[in-house]
Amino acid sequence: MLQPSTLTGPPSLFTTTFPTLHHQFQQNVRDYPDTLALICPHQPANLYTTRDEASSTRTKNPSASSLRWTYAQLDEKIERFVASLRRRGIGRGSLMVLFATNTAEYVVVTWAAYRIGCVHVPLSPRCLGHEREAVHMLETAVGACRPDAVVVVAAAGSGREDVLGRVAGLVRGLQLQVQCWLIAMSRGEGGVRDGWVGFEELMRFSKPGGKDVQLAPEEQEQEQEEEEEEEEEEEDRRSDVTQLSDDDSRLSDDSLEQPQPQPQPQQQPQQQQESSIFFTSGTTSLPKGCFVQGAAFCTTAARASRADPRHPTRPGDRVAVVLPNNHAFGYQILMAAFLNAATVVFPGEAFVSERLIETIRQERCAHVALVPTMVHALKGVAVAPAQKLDSLRRVVLAGAPPTEEVLRICLEHLGAQAVENFYGMTEGIVVSTGPVERLDEAVCGRDISIGRPLSGASVRICAKDSRVPIAVGAVGEVHFSGPSLIDGYIGNRDDEKFYTGEDGHRWFCTGDKAVVGEDGRLYLVGRYNDTIIRGGENIEPSAIEAVLGQTAEFHVLEPQIVRAPDNVAGEVPVAVLRTDVDEQLARQLKDTIQTKMGALFVPAGVVPVSALGLDDYPRTLAGKVQKSKLTELVEAYWTAQKSQARSKLYSRAMLGSKLRQAWAQASGLNDATMMDVNVNLAAYADVRLLESIKTQIWKDMASNVTLSDWLAADTVAEEMEAIGASGQAALASHPNSRLIESLLAAIASAKGENMDQTLRMVDLGIDSITSIALLNQIRQESGVSLPSSLFFTPHTLGELIERLQSSTDPANLLDIDPTTQETPRECFSTLIQGTPKPGVPSLFMTPPGSGYAFSYEPLPKFANDLAIYALGSPFLMTKSAATWTVEEAAALYVQTIRKLQPEGPYLLGGWSMGAILAYEEAYQLRQQGQQVVGIINLDMPLPRPDPHVLEPTVKLLEVVGFYPAIRRAGKPDMEIPSYRRQHSLASVRAKLKYSPRPMCTASDDPTPVRIFVIWAGHGDPDRLPAVLVEADEILRRCGPDTQARTSQEWLQTPRESMGPGGWAEMVGEENVECRVIEHAHHDTLMDPEVVEYTARLMQVAVDKWLS
User: Fold this and answer.
1) Which of 778, 711, 723 is nearest to 749 (CA)?
2) Which of 178, 230, 389, 621 is deepest in the core (most CB within 10 A)?
3) How far is the C-alpha of 1013 from the C-alpha of 1097, rounded, in Å?
């Protein structure tokens, strides 16, 4: 008889009810009062500290510059916040909504919600950008709870993000009929809006002299009643709950090998337990609400990690938490750590790969939870063999199925002792491999195990739309049952997914396909539903379709979003349209999604249904589109297209390389890679020999092309087209063909297929995070690990291909030096928009201190198709990166500008340091007899050398806050690369030494040079010297490894003077015009809304000057 696909976890220790989270936390406070509970390197040590606490001897490291709270201290903070809320009428049955990142405040509010008896609803601040979803989630929570009061806690956000305003607007729209408190988590009272109460104000409520503050009689009565209710409920639980100790977790081997179904703890009514509401994407564009009972959900995970015989979580173990707190996985990891009396470590408010590695190393973290895309990002952080993370005992993976490569990175690159693959869902599913130390413990062939159910839980595999387990080895749908399972979705949405089985237990149909292997472990195969998981983030196709449906030109095309396989992200969305579309409309479709939803949701491709061999979508009898059939067709088409595109890219690259080599050899050129395939061949050979060289190459390489067509080709590019059109067989491969093909495909996926092989790799504009993904893709496909510096070298793409062709060992690429010893001779330039026109000046934008040309990419399109060139620093990848002067850099920029536009008049501009360089460029152009119409200065006053200013260093600038993480929608935060940090340092040094000269001294030309200054209304760059001194004092006091930062007030302080900023001394007051943007300096070109306004002001200047 075939064995059914049923797996049961170890017996649960709790036969009736679970101990409350509050009870378990209080037990830890009593048992481990001096154990660190929370570490936040990004928050100050004295946050919400009372006088008594500051003088207490319990703090083991009083000189620490970052927040470090023991369990006793955290408990005191929670109690203080609870008391303040109770004094304001907040009690059991209230709703506690959070819009917060990973901070100490989130921890305090979460535990306070459970202590009071509020329903805890954590929402991501990012959801505020999707108003329909945000409103739906708030309405769902309010409707499900019918609260007596609502508390909304939100982080104030940065100056450019009006988080509080958005939240207040959403709450007003709910038209609540109950008391509502808005609490702002701001740094200082200046960030609190009208209608909001500051978090700091609530934390001032204390117990002087060890006694509670005297409450009004009715308040005392309410508080006493609530405390008595809590005590009674806790006593009931204690009578039912098995006492917790380490010995209790040691189950017998027999019970583990032959688990038997156990009576599940009874679930109490939702409003009588510690409840949280989490949201999970459904089959519609609106998320579904889940009442999660924290006691069962978190205690199950906590007990499993505590009981592991090889890598248990012990009291005082440090657990690094970087996952979003509004995701069930992140919440479970966080709470399980507290239940085990471990130390939660927040490296920052969000994930940054370098910061996480540094925090694990400095804080000696033993555990960390990640999604696979985070692991790929960590692979790009250099970890030398001697610097492996030797404290790291366990990496927990969830969010998306990991690959073998992900497991290998955890064990080998990071140096973790074990890795755990956790399969969970917001609905309460808990399945895990437990920590495994070897790949073969989790990998079977190509499949990665997701393990077995945790204690008290069961899994069975059933045929689709069936509730009967199928045989072991057969693929079916995962059904789950256990004490952590929710009763159903709020509002009974998709209620058919939940059912009561013949065993009397509640079961859930997950929609996931899996198989139980002969080894008794569960292996995930795929999904029955349409959800696309792109890098661990869920994407609902219907949400994208809804946005496109709001645009008339797309609505008529009946767009369908389906998934397609991807080597890096796992899956990507693809848009299928009912009719053929041109490239311009496809780009418009992607831009629409980018603007309205963010980069995460942008389709990787736009495919007409005709390309799938159909005249219309596959439909049901009722006329509905069959998404499953359409997905299958797209997956097959996508795979075939990728293969064809790769082959075409490779053939074209190889053909171009061969032709250039042939021409170089025939004409005596030394370097074939410097031949431009679009330049007339007469430039490379004597006209008298041109025809004979062409004929010889035709005989050797192009026999399928008619001689007349061959001789008519004037460039290498035209020769390549002629060979391609002739149908000539592909060129012979060589040992590195697959690697070259993979390299070209990776670059094409990021930058498009029209690649110029004479372009330097560094000029491709591939950032650090993208390079990690591309190198991982190349490694998976070719088996070759290329160096991380590959995309930041001054070598051209053609040179790298030539090098690979001439070598049998791709390891020769490993010695590529990303920098060059030579003094640069020119700078990089790129046309970011518009069309250059004779007689019309182009606008040349000089880069800011980072040297990064693509800083100007966010600028929207200007009127009249104005051509805008962005210049890249010539010193960005050179050994002389820290020694250049403003005059030297400007000379190279001028040289490039005059190559692109030989004669004036010129339009120049720059942001920050770029504005100073633009002025010097104008000065040098005037010296050369050229006319300069004007300079657009984005927020930079006239520099004035000061010999007494402290010499800056990278560390000093880091403490000042010069290198904030680059935040990108749908992607992990990206640290500014080290070479750009070095360049920023060189820029600051150059600025501090630069003495600008009045424009009238450049030439006798009386024509004025006008300067249009666009000031950021917040920030005072003149205070930089004083801030450098403050940073130096911090370094002296705290040491070079400190995470402390100077006050950021100087970046946000309203600017007192909006005048010419000193530039009138250079060009005359009548030639300086100023405008103001009421935002901070970085917002000028980094915040989408502010960039729009910046561009409009730039357009005003251009229109004035060219009219």
Assistant:
1) 778
2) 389
3) 10
Lookup: tokens for 874: 């010539």
Closest CA to 719 of 704, 727, 709: 709
End-to-end alpha carbon distance in the chain: 89
The beta-strand segments (E) located in 939-1067 are 1010-1018
**What are 890's two structure tokens?**
């400007």
What is the helix (H) or strand (E) element at residue 1032, kind and residue range? helix 1024-1038
The neighbour count for residue 352, using CB atoms within 10 Å, is: 21
DSSP secondary structure of 629-650: HHHHHHHHHHHHHHHHHHHHHH
Condensed to tens digits (0 to 9), the pLDDT of residues 598-642 reads 777 889 889 999 988 888 888 754 456 778 789 889 988 887 776
Contact 658, 594 (CB under 8 A): no
Q: Which amino acid is at 667?
A: S
Nearest by Cα to 345 from 377, 355, 354, 73: 355
Considering just the CA atoms, what is the radius of gyration of the chain in Å? 32
d(CA 896, CA 831): 13
E strand segments, 264-378 = 275-280, 288-293, 318-320, 343-345, 367-370
d(CA 157, CA 597): 20
Q: Does the CA dihedral 904-907-911-916 come out positive or negative? A: positive
CA dihedral (687, 691, 694, 698) in degrees, to 10, reads: 180
Contact 494, 288 (CB under 8 A): yes
Q: List the strands of the sheet with 275-280, edge to edge.
A: 197-198, 179-185, 149-155, 95-99, 119-123, 275-280, 288-293
**d(C-alpha 434, C-alpha 394), whole Å:** 10
Give whole-number Cα distances, 237 to 22, 132, 927, in Å.
Answer: 12, 41, 86
**Alpha-carbon distance 859 to 1002, whole Å?**
32
DSSP 412: I
CA distance 691 to 697: 10
Measured CA to CA, the distance from residue 672 to residue 305 in angstroms comes to 60
Tell me the average confidence (pLDDT) per consecutive run of 10 residues in the chain, 1107 residues long: 86 79 96 97 90 53 76 96 94 94 96 96 87 89 93 78 85 89 74 81 64 42 52 47 36 34 41 78 67 92 92 96 92 96 95 92 96 81 75 92 84 94 92 94 84 94 91 92 93 83 92 89 79 74 76 80 78 90 86 81 89 83 70 85 56 64 65 66 70 78 76 80 62 62 68 60 60 68 67 66 63 47 66 84 92 83 87 69 82 93 94 95 96 95 83 80 61 58 82 92 93 87 78 85 77 73 92 90 82 91 90
Q: Quick one: 306 exposed, middle or buried, by C-beta within 10 A (0-12, 13-18, 19+)?
A: buried
Q: Is the dihedral of CA 358, 359, 362, 368 positive or negative?
A: negative
Q: How far is CA 395 from CA 103, 303, 433, in A?
A: 22, 17, 12
Residue type for position 734: H
Distance of CA 1046 to the CA centre of its chain: 26
- pLDDT of 523-544, one tens digit each? 987 667 677 887 666 677 877 8
Structural domains in the chain plus CATH codes: 20-35+50-240 (3.40.50.980), 532-625 (3.30.300.30), 643-726 (1.10.1200), 737-812 (1.10.1200), 828-943+994-1021+1054-1106 (3.40.50.1820)
Question: Distance between CA atoms of 143 and 128, rounded to whole angstroms?
Answer: 20
Burial 254-284 (b: 16+ CB within 10 A, else e): eeeeebeebebbebeebeebbbbbbbbbbbe
Q: Both tokens of residue 541?
A: 């196709």
The C-alpha atoms of residue 385 and residue 387 are separated, in whole angstroms, by 5
pTM over 0.70: no
